[in-house]
């Protein structure tokens, strides 16, 4: 089985810009201060979120393996990385830098490399990077570290209910993904 290790990056403006430029996510930021007078900025309207029902809930991540998946058209998620518990295990997000169709093609051809992925430790309660939309067709997952020393991480998500999930099943292609061990314990 071929193994690909994905380095964990620190969330910063460069990482956010890369994810946004690829059309994978959109970080929710307030408009510049000088523009805040009588201004409405829509991040998401009902037409953009065509699911029949919506659900706003807390998600606790307990799994420690990378299990990538994506959501079909009309199934975007709005993620809020807020947690009132100060001491929790790290929460990691892993993204393919390719949209689902292109990613699945490379996966089938056996040509994916570590350059096709980006992983970061979620910046909980962060004013710039703590809330974002994950667009449909974005291959991604969340995971944490194994251990009993602290609580599992939780975050909030607004998503269609029921949420359609399409697993990419890398193991079927003889591929195992993991976070670089030297960075897993950030």
How does this model look, in words?
With 186 residues, the protein is mainly beta. It has a single domain, classed as Jelly Rolls, CATH 2.60.120. 12% of the residues lie in helices and 33% in strands. The chain has 3 helices and 13 strands, in the order E-E-H-E-E-E-E-E-H-E-E-E-E-E-E-H. The protein has a 5-stranded antiparallel sheet with strand order 3-9-6-11-4. Strands 2-8-7-10 form a 4-stranded mixed sheet. A two-stranded parallel ribbon has the order 1-13. The two termini are 27 Å apart.
SSE pattern: EEHEEEEEHEEEEEEH
Overall pLDDT: 84
Instruction: Give the spatial strand order of the biggest sheet.
Output: 3-9-6-11-4
Report the strand count.
13
Given helix and strand content, the structural type is mainly beta
Domain tally: 1
Please work out how many helical segments DSSP would assign: 3
N/C terminus separation: 27 Å
CATH class: Mainly Beta
CATH architecture: Sandwich
Approximate strand percentage: 25-35%
CATH third-tier fold name: Jelly Rolls
Percent of residues in helices? 10-25%
C-alpha geometry: globular
Parts with pLDDT < 50 across at least 5 consecutive residues: none
**Rg:** 17 Å
Strand count, sense and barrel status of the largest sheet are: 5 strands, antiparallel
């Amino acid at each position: 089985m071929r193994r690909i290790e994905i380095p964990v990056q620190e969330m910063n403006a460069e990482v956010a810009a890369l994810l946004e430029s690829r059309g994978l996510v959109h970080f929710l930021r307030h408009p510049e201060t000088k523009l805040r007078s009588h201004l409405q900025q829509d991040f998401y309207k009902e037409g953009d979120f065509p699911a029949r029902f919506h659900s706003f809930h807390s998600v606790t991540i307990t799994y420690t393996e990378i299990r990538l998946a994506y959501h079909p058209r009309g199934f975007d998620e709005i993620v809020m990385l807020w947690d009132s518990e100060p001491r929790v295990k790290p929460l990691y997000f892993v993204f393919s830098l390719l949209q689902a169709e292109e990613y699945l093609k490379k996966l089938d051809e056996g040509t994916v490399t570590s350059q096709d992925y980006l992983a970061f430790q979620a910046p909980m309660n962060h004013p710039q990077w703590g809330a974002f939309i994950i667009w449909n067709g974005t291959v991604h997952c969340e995971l944490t570290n194994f251990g009993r020393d602290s609580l599992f991480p939780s975050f909030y998500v607004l998503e269609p209910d029921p949420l359609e999930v399409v697993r990419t099943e890398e193991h079927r292609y003889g591929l195992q993904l993991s976070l670089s061990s030297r960075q897993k314990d950030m």
